[in-house]
Design a protein that fits this description.
2% strand; 2 domains; single chain; 11 helices; 230 residues; 2 strands; mainly alpha
Length: 230
Amino acid sequence: MTGTISHLAMPAALFLGLHFLVAGTGLRAAIVGALGARPYLGLFAALSLASFVWLLLAYRDAPVAPVWYLPQLTWVALVLMPFALLGALAAYTTGPVLAAAAAGAASEGEARAVGIFAVTRHPFLWSVALWAGAHLLVRGDVASLIFFGSFLALGLIGALRADAKKRGDDAEAWRRLAAATSNVPFAAIVGGRARLSLAELGWWRLSVAAALYGGLLLAHGRVFGTAILT
């Protein structure tokens, strides 16, 4: 079902409901208890993928009902997107969040954030939020508010929920993680609890992210129907 705002709201609600009302909740535990861990993961993945595809199709077919038009903020979106790409890339190509600062520190249980995790302990979720927020700045219509707003909520609220889960699962591990990292990007660096190392971040990641960004600038009109470079 696609073609109306209501048809867009339904998959958005399903997509967010799966992530906020099922994942990491007592309902998840109940389903795992009834079905087992692997069947639950398979079912959750299938429903998440189905709701995501439905959401994409519904957004594609939704009518355009303008709410705002702020072309003067396009530059902000263009600045945010490279960070979104780099964060997502680094999140999936970087090792553990924490590493021992030195042999002596390791024996005392001290640790420091590594690579992208010095910036934020939730790089992928913040990448999703930056991507969604950047698009909301320049796509001020009702359908975009629902579509990109869903992903903005997923990124921002998801990071808070992940922190709450870590805190509840292991208070001591959470203490070490929170002492060396931050949820809000760059907060730990500004506070002196972490340091940014471009070498650890990886020059190849910076290069790949820059190449992806350049490719998106050139191909955005052909692939997504909205040209960035005119």
